[in-house]
Amino acid sequence: MDVPVLESEGYATPVASAPAPSTADPLWWRSAVIYQLYIRSFADGNGDGTGDIAGVRAHLDYLKELGVDALWFTPWYASPLADGGYDVSDYRQIHPAFGEIEEAEALIREALALGIRTIIDVVPNHVSNEHEWFKAALAAGPGSPERERFWFVDGDAIPNHWVSNFQGTTWTQVPDGQWYLHLFTPEQPDLNWNHPDVRREHEDVLRFWFDRGVAGVRIDSAALLVKDPELPEVPDGVVAGQHPNTDRDEVHDIYRSWRAVANSYPGTRVLVGEVWMPDPVRFTNYLRPDEMHTAFNFDFMARPWQGSELRESIDSMLAAHAPVHAPSTWVLSNHDVTRTVTRYGRDDSSFAFATKRFGTPTDIALGTRRARAAALLSAALPGSLYLYQGDELGLPEVEDLPEGTRQDPMHFRSDGVDPGRDGCRVPLPWSGTQPPFGFSGGDSQPWLPQPDDWALYTVESEAADPRSMLSLYRAALAIRRGLEGDESFSWLSTDADVLYFARGGGFVSITNLSDRPIDLPEHEEFLLGSTELVDGQLAPDSTAWLRPINHER
Ligand code: GLC
Fold this sequence. Notes:
By secondary structure, the protein is an alpha/beta fold. Helix content is 24%, strand content 14%. It has an 8-stranded parallel beta sheet. A 5-stranded antiparallel beta sheet has the order 14-15-16-20-18.
């Protein structure tokens, strides 16, 4: 791959990219770069305004050139799309708007031929209300075995006051008087994981996809599956492991069984958990050697752009992972949270679902500068790296979607107070100067409208600009390849505002989070910078990668 050669020190200097890792490497997942592909919005191959498998197959060369090791596909199965596909009606079918199962199989093969693995999403906590099981449960009526696969309860009043992750109640009453549980929307009934059918079916789904060559699964809402069968109210001061619906100790048995399924396949098939868990030890319990391989490090993602905060997160995450021998992951954003350049451009640059509001003042130039520094910081840390599609282009959150175009139930269930997650799911701009910016062939407009000024962010224009976010990511991932397999890490400074650390013998990363330029440490070679040096100094909100002097060869 060609890495852009830039004129002045402070951006990239030419680097030879290390060879792509062998697809036979059993430890590939420990340091992989995984690109989160939100299929609806990546590229539209058939011109109907919705992204699809054909669009991905047509752009595999882009992903190869970017330098990613694996793709994680958000749900691509049959679904009424009440929650963007996280309401699955059939795991063994692809949503017709995205393609067919044979196309998914071809994609998995073609990507692997380029050295890129495929990870799929499974959503075990709930299914769609249009799933055969739920339809059968409704038809069979109270007391039937079909209802036992879900949480159906009798009663005149609501069974308890658990609050939905999308606000509001977690119970819906059906015409025969019973209530069913849904931790998300009513279109997403929760499964009863005490039922053997539920366990067996999910293990079969894993086999179905492992048989088709997928290299791993991302496990949605992984801490929520097991409920206290008494369905009690959430007590004050709940004891860890005994919350009625979150992180119950019994949930770990499920992942032990899944790990056994994964281990029965050749190569390493990985389990990646979506585990939102404030306590680092409760979090890494999911990563014990017979459970999941890795889980998303949301602690780092949610921290504000402040040296002490990020340093504390790095330290606590590395310390929590060490005893279970799992690598950490590093994540700056995903399809649920505010785009990185927008979040980092705000006074409060932390992330919390509860604080998302319309009209938050944002300095996109500052946010972009910090996002560039964060891209290099996170890519330099030991472990695997997740990159959400569009972050490599520096796309901002789209906050002014026209009325009537929003789709996210989080927005509607908050009575319109929470902007929801549509703003980070807008289709990618590929080329040209006006919507659909090459996303769809022809004139059909994307399922969510793109802002008119996204010509600035197209792959075409950024690929031609050595100072673009895309050029930074391409150069960074090429250099990062040389670090894969090395899990060493040591701080070289205790300064709260300067995150300066070494990886292996021949690489250091330094991020300046102070408000003054700082001197660079002595170095043999300047590898890459997120901004141009100013009089030889590293400006605020910048990261530089250096080859130290006297390094090991
Ligand atoms: C996860 C997904 C999110 C989805 C929710 C319910 O948090 O990332 O997009 O809405 O689970 O399945």
